[in-house]
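Sequence only, no structure available. Ideas?
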Amino acid sequence: MVGGESPQVTLYRLFVLNMALQLFDGVATYQGLRIGFQEANPILVQAFALIGILPTLVLYKAYACGLLVILHRITPARLGVPIMQGLAAVYCVLSLGPWLGKFASVAAHL
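Reply:
I predicted one. Tokens follow.
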């Protein structure tokens, strides 16, 4: 908890962070594919082939955000806080870090 804030406030802040990470991941994936990077998730790759990149990203991110809303609404803060922390950590390691590294390498070559 930050500065003694209530677990509910911490849960809400983590919810907002996770929503922002989902948005970042969708936009970064779209932009990364546009400039020639490949998607690492084979499920998304298959969906891209079936319905296209943008529809796939919108559907998958809407689904992920919907699950975050449900998790935030029904999970008690004592369980929701560590779950949301874990999800944020996973997205930082598997999305934020890799995409920032790829975009930094492109920027370094400009």
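DSSP finds four helices and no strands in the chain.
Hope that gets you unstuck.
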